[in-house]
Amino acid sequence: MLIYFRFIGFTGDPFRFCEDINECERKFGPYGQCGNSSSCVNTLGSFQCSCPSGYTGNAREKCTDINECSQAFGPNGKCGFNSMCINAPGSYSCRCPAGSSGDPFIKCIVEHRCNSDSDCNGNAICKIGKCICPAPYFGEDCKRMLFLKFELVNAYIINVLI
User: Fold this and answer.
1) Are 111 and 128 in contact (CB under 8 A)?
2) What's the CA gap between 116 and 76, in Å, rounded?
3) Model pLDDT for residues 113-161, shown as the tens digit of each residue
4) C-alpha 70: how far from its chain's center?
5) CB 94 within 8 A of CB 69
6) d(CA 72, CA 67)
7) Residue 47 host element (H or E)
């Protein structure tokens, strides 16, 4: 009497030749034996499922897109202040709305239109119809930060806008 053992993840006659089963083949489904939108990696006698970047969930069942534009991450999702967040499957992008500029992952600043320097805030100057804030000035009011240091028992730094 012959007794055959079947090892999970292998097929064939265990006394002659065992062959690894590729659980990631499409014959098992669009993602192999893993869940929807997951990544399947075949290993010897087994397989691993994982959710790709930008997705979350139980990879053996289903990976779901992370909505990086959700207000759970902040008022503009994972994007910066005053920016627009655009969610896409597995990713997202940020952009500054029309009439503003800056790094949309940090902050978009509304561009002010002008005819002369007097139309601009603070130390900004009017160039080609737009208010531009030259260095060393910065911010919405185009002012600079002055750091004063006083020697007492401990050093204190006081920020004064000028």
Assistant:
1) no
2) 33
3) 899 999 998 899 999 998 888 888 877 778 876 555 555 555 544 544 4
4) 12
5) no
6) 9
7) strand 46-50
| Residues 51 and 75 grouped into a single domain | no
| Cβ pair 13, 20 in contact under 8 A | no
Instruction: Please calculate the CA angle 35-37-38 and round it to the nearest 5 degrees.
Output: 60
**Residue 44 pLDDT level (bands cut at 50, 70, 90):** confident
CA distances 61 to 64, 154, 157, Å, are 10, 59, 55
The DSSP bridge pattern shows strands 84-88 and 91-95 to be antiparallel
Distance (Å, whole) CA 118 – CA 125: 8
Residue 74: inside a domain: yes
The boundaries of the domain holding residue 93 are 66-111
